[in-house]
């Protein structure tokens, strides 16, 4: 098994953020949202009145409190895909990278969903400290960017309101360098050399399925972990 090789936690340059946004993740993003919605039950869609603190809600630029949190939103492609597939829900989309959020703002303003998506530069730590809670907490392809994946997943679990759902998907680390190259050729063969290198680094920085399962067993919510493609794992959690 390959040893995990970490990436930088944040894509700091506009060039990196633009290269990421120009990669075609449309099918992956559509599948993420479709699988998230399929994992919900009618009861999951009932928002408790106290899911967010008054202080947290009043700080947002809308009178409608967010019921959905997207952590590591990048250029906001997942929130936009969610709004495309689902007619309900206000999403708070957060990321640490100013370069990513600048493009995210462009993407949101160019869409018809600007009233349903709020962008904020932050990490999970301040949100947990604020006591923010959401009916749905989702995150796609963030875990492999973070050194302490266990702490990130614990924070995500703490942000789920009672009765709410956690939905996390990320890349799987292959067992060999040859397997990484096979995935790069299969899924990024038509991309630029720079985009291929980003994908290669992401695979090397990812967790193995056993590592995800070990973390999931320690989370304060009930979870299931599955391998759902040749390169992805998914964690679904339910807060009681």
TrEMBL record:
Entry keywords, A to Z: Methyltransferase, S-adenosyl-L-methionine, Transferase
One term of GO molecular function: methyltransferase activity
Domain Methyltransferase span(s) in chain numbering: 68-164
Domain of life where this protein originates: Bacteria
SUPFAM superfamilies found in the cross-reference section: S-adenosyl-L-methionine-dependent methyltransferases
Keyword RNA-binding appears in the UniProt entry: no
InterPro entries tied to this protein: Methyltransf_25, SAM-dependent_MTases_sf
Example GO BP: methylation
Protein name (record): Methyltransferase domain-containing protein
């Amino acid at each position: 098994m390959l040893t995990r090789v970490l990436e930088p936690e944040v894509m700091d340059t506009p060039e990196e953020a633009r290269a990421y946004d120009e990669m075609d993740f449309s099918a992956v993003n559509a599948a993420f949202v479709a699988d998230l919605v399929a994992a919900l039950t009618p009861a999951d869609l009932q928002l408790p009145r106290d899911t967010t603190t008054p202080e947290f809600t009043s700080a947002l630029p809308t009178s409608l409190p967010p019921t959905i949190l997207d952590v590591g939103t990048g250029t906001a492609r997942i929130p936009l895909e969610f709004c495309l597939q689902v007619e309900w829900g206000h999403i708070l989309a957060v990321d640490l990278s100013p370069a990513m959020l600048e493009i995210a703002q462009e993407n949101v303003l160019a869409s018809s969903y600007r009233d349903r998506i709020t962008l904020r530069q932050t990490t999970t730590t301040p949100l947990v400290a604020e006591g923010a809670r959401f009916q749905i907490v989702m995150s796609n392809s963030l875990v492999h960017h973070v050194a302490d994946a266990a702490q990130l997943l614990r924070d995500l679990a703490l942000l789920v309101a009672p009765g709410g759902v956690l939905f996390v998907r990320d890349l799987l680390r292959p067992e060999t360098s040859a397997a990484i190259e096979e995935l790069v050729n299969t899924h990024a063969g038509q991309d630029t050399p720079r985009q291929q290198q980003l994908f290669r680094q992401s695979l090397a920085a990812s967790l193995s399925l056993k590592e995800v399962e070990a973390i999931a067993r320690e989370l304060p919510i009930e979870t299931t972990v599955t391998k759902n493609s040749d390169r992805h794992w998914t964690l679904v959690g339910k807060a009681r």
